[in-house]
Amino acid sequence: MPELPEVETMVRGLRPALSGRTVRRLELLDPTLLQGCTPGQLARRGRGATVVGVARRGKWVVMELAGNRGIIVIQPRMTGGFWLVEPARAEHVRLVFHVGNPGARVWYCDARRLGKVCWYADESAAAEAFARSHGPDALEIARDELARRLDRTSRGIKPTLMDQKVLAGIGNIYADETLHRARIHPERPASSLTAEEVERLHRSIGEVLATAIELEGSSFDAGYRTVLGLEGGFLAQNSVYGRKDQPCPTCARPILKTKIAGLVGRPTYYCPACQVRG
Ligand SMILES: [Zn+2]
After folding, report:
1. Ligand 1 centroid to 268 CA: how many Å?
2. Mind telling me the catalytic residues?
3. Around 171, how many Cα atoms within 13 Å sit in the side-chain half-sphere?
């Protein structure tokens, strides 16, 4: 599922195609994804509107329309993604932005249709909606704020990092990579972390996410692709995720694959030597 680096990569790919461009038509092929207005309202608000900017908030893609036409938020969730080239699977297209020159299009595809297309009246309405279900963005959270939030729960640190209400943007892959880099066992109770460990964790979150954004995210299956249909490069050089029995890049011990409490159906990878339970 797209996490913060994949959504940031989508946003960076969309900007040159959408920012400053005029929407000729919004073609909504799957109205069940729409929230906050009717398909007719969306079409009227989109037609002729200029896209002021495209931004990321957590795992949301936020598009602002000029002239009080509102904000369109797309949440790719499990299988959503954007295409600037003709999508490989036409049957997965849910929304088409006809923008700029005649013939120019941007496609939103979603194989399992679990994503959402939401309309908000303005920036503050979108920000409020985000704040109701999310903590601060993982790239923006201050160390002290992270420490306060971790201190409130004795749940394992890994499920806590993946809880979007604690901080927004981190899922299974980047939780494993961040904890390995910070040398913290995934099942340590969040509130048991020392100040030094929180410091390491905070730094690791920033470093791992920055590297992943640079490499355009992670493609571990047919799901995520960049807007040009390419695979992200992060999993070609990461440390633990998907690397069962391969040597830890720090100490060469084999990486373990396991299941931990609080994460149904999702594996956890870690190094038993670098990440001792304590
Ligand atoms: Zn190790």
Report:
1. 15
2. 2-3, 59, 266
3. 16
Q: What is the rounded distance in angstroms from the CA atom of residue 257 to the CA atom of residue 255?
A: 7
Q: And the tokens for 170?
A: 């981190």
Q: Which domains does the chain have, with CATH numbers?
A: 4-133 (3.20.190.10), 143-270 (1.10.8.50)
pTM of the model: 0.96
**DSSP track, 100-147:** SSTT-EEEEEESS---EEEEESSHHHHHHHHHHH--SBTTT--HHHHH
pLDDT in tens, 111-162: 999 999 999 999 999 999 999 999 999 999 999 999 999 999 999 999 999 9
- Residues with Cβ within 8 Å of 144's Cβ and at least 6 positions away in sequence, in order, are none
CA–centroid distance, 200 to ligand 1, in Å, is: 16
Q: Show contacts of 65-70: CB within 8 Å, 24+ apart.
A: 65/23, 68/122, 69/45, 70/45, 70/119, 70/120, 70/121, 70/122
